[in-house]
Amino acid sequence: MLTALDETLRHQIATTFDHAGTSDHRFFDRYWFGVYDPRGRMALVCGMAQYLNTNVMDGFCAIQLPRADGGIEQHNFRLSRALRPDLDETRVGPLRVRIEEPFQRIRLGCEAGELPLSFDLEWTAFLPPSEEKHHFNRVNGRVFQDYHRYTQAGRGTGVVQLGDQVFDVDDWWAGRDHSWGVRSQVGGYEPATGPGTEAQLAAAGYVYYWLTFNDGECGGYVQLQFLGDRTRIFTDGEIVWPQTGRRFIVADAEVEVELHPGTRIYKRLRTRLRGYDGSTVELVAEPVIGYWSMDGTGYDWGWNDDKGLGFHRGEYVVEHDIYDITHPERVVRPNGELRIPGHREAPCAITVDGKLAPRSAGHQVFVASGPVKWLGLDK
């Protein structure tokens, strides 16, 4: 089947762009966006992905809102459609993503009418994208992950309406990433070849740290991965000051973590970074609202059928629910069920070298699984 991309001179394999170069059902190509009010009135994440081998295009949007009683709600919207024949449409129902100028300007939208949600947002670049190091490993002979990602700091402007609440988005923090390849937890199931990497890492202890931020003066991306004994197994990132041209490349890192008592969820992160030029940068991340329960967006086998992202559900399916995320670790589902999902991420205020700028915000991931002795987590 020919698509618009087949008019370009960019073919990588001897077939059309409606086919992937692998038959692995977990092959994906996904956008992710975050738009946060630095003052903590509202936070929005949304995303959209194409899965050529499961014939799916799906998308999500989630909004965090503080309540008058001191609680915090997470409103989730999950949408999925059959990918073919509309491969060229980056749209699922009312949700859409339109690249208006590559790496510079993107339009995010949700049309009013079908859902109790609508928005029209312009995402504009603050920095050029940062390419991550390639992610690849095998487990028991099979490819567990083989994917690439870039991350980009930006700003957001527009309007969001949820029910009868309207939010004017006036130069808020905005970040994005774009990843593609093969990852776990995609397409409904993992191939069975014995214990997987996730189980092995959980037994050994594992910490995943990922940050993108900007404060009006500088911004960037940092990714760190540790084993439970504090051995660092992945280090990547850069911070850029566009007005001065300074570019800081992360060579080494030390993380101090303050957890909410009795939980695995961070309350405050202090990260001391050393660059290849010998200079240092210190970042402090503190959540401004709550912690995303990522299963609400479809990650971590989310969706009501527990099949997660990229699973074929028919021509068109929509799910909408509201989680109570007031507690940093315990999540209350609509039916009152209490869950403790391991995958939590947060809109944060980011202090850079002791300075917290008025427009400073970012998206901080810090997930600790299994025994992590340096955090006082024994199992």
Fold and architecture overview:
With 379 residues, this protein is mainly beta. The protein is built from one helix and 24 strands. Strands 1, 2, 3, 4, 5, 6, 7, 8, 9, 10, 11, 12 and 20 form a 13-stranded antiparallel beta sheet that branches. An eight-stranded antiparallel beta barrel has the order 13-14-15-16-17-18-23-24. Strand 7 and strand 8 form a beta hairpin. It is globular and about 55 Å long. The model has no long low-confidence stretch (mean pLDDT 95).
Shape: globular
Q: What's the story with the biggest beta sheet?
A: 13 strands, antiparallel
Arithmetic mean of pLDDT: 95
Poorly predicted tracts of residues: none
- Can you count the helices? 1
Number of β-strand runs: 24
Radius of gyration: 20 Å
**SSE succession:** EEEEEEEEEEEEHEEEEEEEEEEEE
Give me some keywords for this one:
single chain; 379 residues; 8-stranded antiparallel barrel; 2% helix; globular
Walk me through the topology.
Blueprint: E1 27-36, E2 43-51, E3 56-66, E4 72-82, E5 91-92, E6 95-101, E7 105-110, E8 117-125, E9 130-131, E10 135-139, E11 142-162, E12 165-182, H1 197-204, E13 206-214, E14 219-227, E15 232-241, E16 246-259, E17 266-275, E18 280-287, E19 292-293, E20 316-324, E21 331-332, E22 338-339, E23 344-352, E24 361-369
Antiparallel strand pairs: 1-2, 1-12, 2-3, 3-4, 4-20, 5-6, 6-7, 7-8, 8-11, 9-11, 10-11, 11-12, 13-14, 13-24, 14-15, 15-16, 16-17, 17-18, 18-23, 19-23, 21-22, 23-24
What's this, in brief?
This protein is mostly beta strands and 379 residues long. The protein is 2% helix and 54% strand.
